[in-house]
Each structure stands twice: as C-alpha cells, then as structure tokens.
Design brief:
This protein is an alpha/beta fold. The protein is built from nine helices and seven strands. The structure holds S-adenosylmethionine (SAM).
C-alpha cells in the first residue's frame, strides 16, 4: 500500500509515521508514505498557498492552484484522493476497512478556514473524523492512517483486530492481566478456569452487556439468535 499526504506542515506528521506499529509496517514494506509539502507549489516569492475569501469574512482560504498542482500528479499515478474535511463522511470501522483495501491513497490536509470549493472537484472522497473542528487536516490524516494501516495484512495479526470494538459490530469485552488481585479488585474466575468454551461465552456476554449499556445503537443488526439468548440471561444478573 502507498499513502501520499499533501500538507503545509510535513513535520507534524513525519514522526508518528516512523513510530511504533506504523513505523514497523513501513520497515516491513507493508506500507510506504510520500509526504508532499504544499508550499513547493506555493505562489510568488513567499510561496503563498492562501488568500482572503471572496465576499469577505474572517480568516484565509487555501487557493486552488497549489492544491491542484499537488493533487493532479497523484491522481494520474492512480491514487484515490481523500480530502480531510469536517463536511465529509464520518470515519468508521467500516470505512477504514474499505480504505485498507485501496492500494494507493492520497490524503489532502486543509488549513486556515478551509479550501477553495473548486478543490472538491479533484478529490474522490471527503472524510471527517468527527463532529468538531481542528486547526488542520494533519491530525485527521494521522487518525485515518492509523485506523487504516493497522488493518492492512502484515501490520498486526488479524486475530488482534478482528475482536476489537466495532469490528464485530459491538464494543469489546473487558480485558484483565496480572496480578490476579489488585487493591482488592479481582479477576472474573472464569478467565482463570482454562475452560476456553466458557471464556468465549463470558466474553461474548460481557461484550453484549457493555454494548447494550453504552452503545445500544450498535446492537441493532449485530445480533444472532445465540446473542439474543445471551442478552436475555443478562436480565437475570
Ligand atoms: N471552516 C471549516 C468548516 O467550518 O468546516 C473548518 C476548517 S478547519 C479550521 C481547517 C482544516 O482542518 C480543514 O480544511 C480540514 O482539512 C481539517 N479539519 C478540521 N476538522 C476536521 C474534522 N473534524 N475532520 C477532518 N478534517 C478536519
């Protein structure tokens, strides 16, 4: 997989892409990154990439010429171009899984008050990481990269992410590690029993409990008959 990033702050994203699991994925050849400084296409002596909004108003808007100049070669190279934008479709586990299957992504980071509207004509998709506004698209791009690259085969084992929250349509079950007793708080005995069938049943039941309590909206559509039977037993607790 290849991911190109267009930004006016390359330094904001370089370190996270070299660090931890994403950095190891790069070393293993699972993913390669290209970071493009938008100022290379900036206008005039000051390599300007922004200007005042037509019609007046606060802040500056990113001009189309530098963005078109940065994006068009990436499109021609076959990239699926994604603009990070609060007005985009929400990033979800399902969208991350879809993007993990795309061989070449190009992520475009906005700044200031956002981009000239005409830039939307050269992107394939717009993605938002949530209903709040950040100062730029670099952190959203990193969030998207992290969510996507961990799903690309060779980054982490499939077993590690297929049980994660949202992958199965639910939140994950509670996890415990040593010590067995900590400040008077114990570990559910079933997890120490060595009975894998019972452990699996307990985990599914606790995932259902947590999802019903915290995100009941996720349960619709995620349940099979066995889950419905387990859910009914929660009412007996
Ligand atoms: N004026 C814009 C609006 O109200 O939608 C917000 C612009 S924001 C200050 C600057 C840039 O940050 C955006 O162009 C976008 O690239 C990025 N950004 C901010 N919040 C975001 C979010 N929730 N999801 C994705 N990108 C975001």
């Amino acid at each position: 997989m290849r991911i190109d990033v267009v930004t006016i702050f390359p330094e904001l994203i370089e370190v996270p892409l070299r660090t931890s699991i994403i950095g190891r994925a790069v070393e293993a050849g699972v993913v390669e990154f290209g970071i493009h400084d938008l100022r290379a296409h900036g206008l005039g002596r000051h390599r300007s990439v922004d200007d005042e909004p037509y019609g007046g108003g606060a802040g500056m808007v990113m001009r189309p010429e530098p963005l078109f100049a940065a994006i068009e070669p990436l499109r021609e190279a076959g990239a699926h171009v994604v603009l990070l934008d609060p007005a985009g479709e929400r990033l979800t586990d399902a969208l991350a899984r879809h993007l993990a299957g795309v061989a070449h992504l190009a992520l475009v980071c906005g700044r200031y008050e956002g981009i000239d509207e005409r830039v939307r004509t050269v992107v394939d998709r717009e993605v938002s990481i949530g209903d709040y506004v950040l100062t730029g698209g670099e952190l959203p791009a990193l969030v998207l990269i992290d969510a996507v690259v961990r799903l690309v085969p060779g980054t982490i084992s499939q077993a590690s992410h297929e049980g994660d929250s949202f992958a199965s349509g639910m939140l994950e079950y509670p996890q415990y590690t040593r010590p067995e007793s900590f400040r008077g708080l114990g570990v559910p005995p079933v997890l120490l029993s060595g009975n894998h069938g019972e452990v699996d049943r307990w985990r599914r039941r606790e995932a259902l409990r947590r999802t019903r309590e915290r995100r009941p909206d996720l349960l619709e559509g995620a349940l099979d008959d066995a889950d419905r039977a387990l859910l009914a037993t929660l009412d007996d607790d």
